[in-house]
Design goal:
Helix content: under 10%
Strand order of the largest sheet: 1-9-6-11-4
Largest sheet: 5 strands, antiparallel
Order of helices and strands: EEEHEEEEEEEEEH
CATH class: Mainly Beta
Distance between the termini: 17 Å
Number of domains: 1
Bound molecules: thymidine-5'-diphosphate
Oligomer: single chain
CATH architecture: Sandwich
Low-confidence stretches: none
CATH superfamily: Jelly Rolls
Number of strands: 12
CATH topology: Jelly Rolls
Strand content: 35-45%
Radius of gyration: 15 Å
Structural class: mainly beta
Length: 134
């Protein structure tokens, strides 16, 4: 797998009244955050993602519940299970991703390096493979 893909571990403040984690832009995230979006109410068996990005970088966090992220860098595939809100999966550009196996009530929060731009998406896997293996 592309060595740029990595898991980030956010700080945890443990207290008897509950845990608190925090994310500071310049400290914990390797890009300037321009957008935050989140997936929720995902029906059982649904798949999200199914695309790559030409330039966009993202950090994917399971804020609640769990789901799997299937990764493809054009040469190999990997699967990462996210189920803790203090972990973030950093995805650089040009990684095909599929999010699946959402638990009931799962919330997937995504921090993104750019605003939404459909032109940045690669939505056909064959196109992705061609671009990833020039
Ligand atoms: P898409 O990125 O394909 O969803 P996912 O990868 O999570 O399965 O986006 C689904 C729809 O939502 C698509 O019509 C574009 C729109 N959208 C926005 O308008 N803004 C955004 O920030 C995102 C992520 C999606």
């Amino acid at each position: 797998m592309d060595p740029r893909v990595r898991t980030l571990h956010f700080p945890i403040i443990h207290e008897p009244r509950g845990n608190l984690s925090f994310i500071e832009g310049d400290v914990h995230i390797p890009f300037d955050i321009k957008r935050v979006y989140y997936l929720y109410d995902v029906p059982g068996g649904a798949m999200r993602g199914g695309h790559a990005h030409r330039d966009l970088q993202q950090v994917i966090i399971a804020l609640s519940g769990s789901f799997d992220v299937v990764l493809d860098d054009g040469k190999s595939r990997d699967k990462v299970s996210l189920n803790r809100s203090y972990y973030g999966l950093y995805l650089p550009n040009m990684i095909w991703r599929e999010l699946e196996n959402f638990s009931s009530g799962a919330v997937c929060m995504v921090l993104a390096s750019e605003r939404y731009d459909e032109a940045d998406y690669i939505r056909e896997h064959a196109d992705f493979l061609a671009l990833a293996n020039p």
